[in-house]
Amino acid sequence: MRRLLFVSATLSALASPCLASGQEPHPAETTEVAEVVVTATRLPALQLETPGARVVDRREIERRGAVLATDLFAAIPGLTVTRAGPFGGLAQVRIRGAAPGKTLVLIDGAPVNDPAEVNGAYDFGGLDLAGVARVETLSGPQSSLWGSDAIGGVIALTTAEVDGIGLEAEAGSFGTRRGRLEAGRQGATGGLSVYASRVETDGISAADERDGNVEADGMVSVIAGLKARRDLGPVQLDGSLRYSELDADIDGFPAPRFALADTADRIASRTWSGAAGLSFAAAGLQHRLSVSGLDLERDTVSAFPSRFVADRTIWRWQAEGGLGDRVAVVGGVEHDAATGSISTGAEETLTTTSAFVTGRWAVLTGLNLTAALRHDATDVFGEETSGRISAAWSLPAGLVLSGAWGTGFKAPSISQALCDYCFSSQPFPRLRPETAEGGELALGWRSGDGRLEGRITAYRLEVEDQISYVFDPVTFNSVYVNLSRTESEGVELEGRAVLPAGFDLTLAYATTDAVNAVTGARLARVPEQTGSVRLGWSGARGGVNLIVRGESEAVDPAGPRDGFVVGDLTGRLRLTEEVELTARVINLTDEAWQQVRGYGEPGRSAYLGVRLAF
């Protein structure tokens, strides 16, 4: 917590001269280049030339009527969400079939994965999109860029720089109330933005009502944050601070049947995350020194209560330079220290010291090569070196051929290292890091006027020494072991078309064949087919969007989970330059469906709102 207080103090120092500077404000939004990926690739790159990269900007977030981050992921091929209850239940993301702990999540460059979670995964359950301007995903092994936790890929959220005041309020089904506030001022030498949101709902039963469960499980989610920057000439300072709080009712597995049913269980979590950085030029390079931190408390109230506490601090030096317009290089070193507790209260600290370098070379006009190399030295699990190489070739007629191959690794989580919830008559096995390699090949196309574009990607991912929790019914030994080897391969399709009369269309579709290579069994909670279609219309006074998404059936530890297709309708009507009305109808056809077997999802529901901007 001391590190986050340091970040907070830094932000206050940044903000005060900015607000008193008297500089004329300028719009925070600049000309959009939707295909540019900034955070996830370290070196800026065009989306169409970066295999596995996708961007959802703020305009698209608002058009889709997205409230939670999970509302966006159906539009990104290769991503699947597993959500144990629709309002505040545990929600995790799999990229290309990889387990949730193999996806690194960044908010303003700060890793927010939970060191105290079994797999070290991030819980998206209460992640409101308040203040979020951009969501980037990068699929495939990215350990050469970001180290451990990035075997499956990276999800990076960037908060907005706001110039003005924005207010939003919404109410609707299940006693749902939602409010947001954003305010900020941006000037030539600095800026400060603040945001806050609160979502409250009476909810529905987390355990499916079709199984006789009728108790509503409510949720309260609060998010607040700030972002600041200050240009002092020779040096530039920037920072962000974010607080999130979630209180949610969840259902459990009561005796004597130990089947999912209505209970009084609930979960409460409090998270602080933040980052502060200093940038300057020296010796022909652009340098950046930064520190990011995470402090988390998570309590579960049930027949078997638990409390988990975690914190993580990363110090990083990074330098960027190049040779003319043809070569760009970024490299640096970082130190990552993560501390977490397990169900018994025991704590462990795992540290990693790393060095990395990424370079891009414009070999010829239209042909770019990118390579990355990283060495990670852990204090407990040895050392690993990972790499990645990619290429993009711009062909005639708007075609772009690109491909990548890379390796990755993931150190055991604190829970796995201490063997939480374990019992064994023998010493616990010594775990090895999981390792991975994967490759992809993509063909993209964009029309000359930019009104049509699409991409098809084929990929393969292999994970060795996957860590699994095993139970022996004879000895009752229960431990984590390096047991599995998993393989996933598939095809991803995506497209966008700007149609006449104000209409536009976006498509996303993916096949994922993910199996345990030892047994041949399909991996749990990875549907073989996923897809979405959005048809939108925009006019001078507003717009309407119809979104249809679906998944095929999936294997689940509780049994087969049926496939589903659901549709949502969102609309907005601008009354004046400052006032806009919004409406959402979720699950138009009142489909009975599940993302995780046994956990219900809402039937048809409706929400009305208003947005104010000054």
Write the layout of secondary structure elements.
Elements: H1 2-20, E1 36-37, E2 45-46, E3 53-57, H2 58-63, E4 79-83, E5 91-95, E6 103-107, E7 110-111, E8 132-139, H3 143-146, E9 153-159, E10 164-172, E11 176-187, E12 190-204, E13 217-231, E14 235-249, E15 266-282, E16 285-301, E17 306-323, E18 327-341, E19 347-364, E20 367-378, E21 383-394, E22 399-410, H4 414-418, E23 434-446, E24 452-471, E25 478-498, E26 503-516, E27 529-539, E28 542-551, E29 564-574, E30 579-586, E31 605-613
User: What is the percent of helical residues?
Assistant: under 10%
Let me know the average pLDDT.
90
Tally of separate helices = 4
Q: Name the poorly predicted regions.
A: 1-34
Shape summary: globular
Distance between the termini: 35 Å
Largest sheet: 22 strands, antiparallel, barrel
Q: What's the Cα radius of gyration?
A: 24 Å
Kindly name the structural category.
mainly beta
Number of strands: 31
Our estimate of the beta-strand percent is: over 45%
Summarize the structure.
With 614 residues, this protein is mainly beta. It contains 4 helices and 31 strands. A hairpin with a 4-residue loop joins strand 20 (367-378) and strand 21 (383-394).
Features:
single chain; 614 residues; 22-stranded antiparallel barrel
